[in-house]
Amino acid sequence: MPELVRALSRQAAVALLGPRQVGKTTLALAVAAQRRSVYLDLEDPDDRRRLAEPALFLGALDDHLVVLDEIHRVPELFQPLRGIIDRGRRAGKGVGRFLILGSASVDLLRQTGESLAGRVAMLELTPLTALEVGDRQAERERLWQRGGFPESYLAAGEEASLAWRKDFIRTYLERDIATFGVRVPAATLERLWTMLAHRQGTLLNASALARALEVSAQSVTRYIDLLVDLLLVRRLPPLAANVGKRLVKSPKVYIRDSGLVHALLGIPTLTALSGHPVVGHSWEGFVIETLLAVLPWRASAFFYRTSAGGEIDLVIEHGDGERWAIEIKRSLSARARRGFHTACADIGASRAFIVHAGDDRFPVSESVEGIGVRALAEELRG
After folding, report:
1. pTM score, two decimals?
2. How many Å apart are CA 377 and CA 367, to the nearest integer?
3. Which residues does residue 151 pair with via DSSP β-bridges, in sequence order?
4. Alpha helix locations (H) across the chain?
5. What is the mean pLDDT of residues 183-209?
6. What radius of gyration do the chain's Cα atoms show?
7. Nearest Cα to Cα of residue 317 among 288, 290, 350, 354
8. Helix axis angle, 217-229 relative to 206-213, nearest 10°?
9. How far apart are CA 279 and CA 16, in angstroms?
């Protein structure tokens, strides 16, 4: 909530984007409870009718915080919002007037960028991370296995958690994506999503996916673009370092919520996950999402791989050019591969870590430190 409060204090509008709808709504209502506010659910026909004349209705609420939930249902609101915000600024009511919630989409991001440039701060609300649950290893393991959607993580049992995730996938494919005006067959997108789960954390090969789906490579790229825009899939780019070596140039692809990976693959329990071929890449994706959720402003994330075998799972490049190299291991030990040390030298890493599945922190070598995911996330956030 501190980031949200800061954003409200510097912009007229704040957009919270992402698929974690219940979390966004709960957070918005918590903020709204602290001041005079009006909450509008734009999936509700009655609330939409109240906005038939948005300039009149919203203009009369200049002393309130107005929460507009599910804004992607009424994208035409962005244009009148601009005029309302500008008139409020001239009247000395320039900040903290609107809190906008919605699943990110191409149209939504484009319209907020064009209509509200300089008037809105956009914050991404990720699923729960390791810093938002208890600090015991069992809670972290449950978060990894079930994923970070609150309803899945907090479900009464494994069966209920898996059922919620399967329902989420089905409704998102069959109902929600269609509301963004994107015409993609639900069955095709589900097959692609499942194929990406099988290939979690591997290099993107659009041609191979296209052959399996019997569509063009351009179509596969467009479908993945859609999933990226909806914050469901992450493309991690390679680091373009001038090191005089032949570098891998394809991005790596991750389904961002580990619980959705396991649901797409039909993995019901932590025990079943531990013996599944995807276990290492699933853990890698979970760690990456935890770390990137607290990535400092102006920092960027990459991976690094050369044809000669040098490899770093995650490179954090800070705004001042400093680079951190991070290797991710699904084990309690922290032993670096030779290619990791070589790659750290290639990119001039100032710090190097091996993230393991435990909580201990210890030196692996003179230049590499073993660390748990929670501790490294706290260091990045700090």
Report:
1. 0.86
2. 19
3. none
4. 2-10, 21-32, 45-50, 54-59, 78-90, 106-115, 137-146, 150-153, 158-171, 177-179, 186-198, 206-213, 217-229, 258-264, 270-274, 279-292, 338-347, 373-381
5. 92
6. 22
7. 350
8. 110
9. 31
Better-predicted residue by pLDDT, 20 or 299? 299
Res. 245: pLDDT tops 90: no
Token representation of residue 141 = 């393991």
Query: Does the pLDDT value for residue 9 go beyond 60?
Result: no
Q: For position 326, what pLDDT does the model report?
A: 97
Q: Which one, of 333, 289, 291, 337, lies nearest residue 310 by Cα? A: 337
Contact 291, 373 (CB under 8 A): yes
What sign results for the dihedral spanned by CA atoms 71, 72, 74, 75?
positive
- Which ranges in 60-173 belong to alpha helices (H)? 78-90, 106-115, 137-146, 150-153, 158-171
Specify the length of the chain in residues: 382
Q: Is the pLDDT of residue 15 over 70?
A: no
For tokens 């009149």, what's the residue? 56
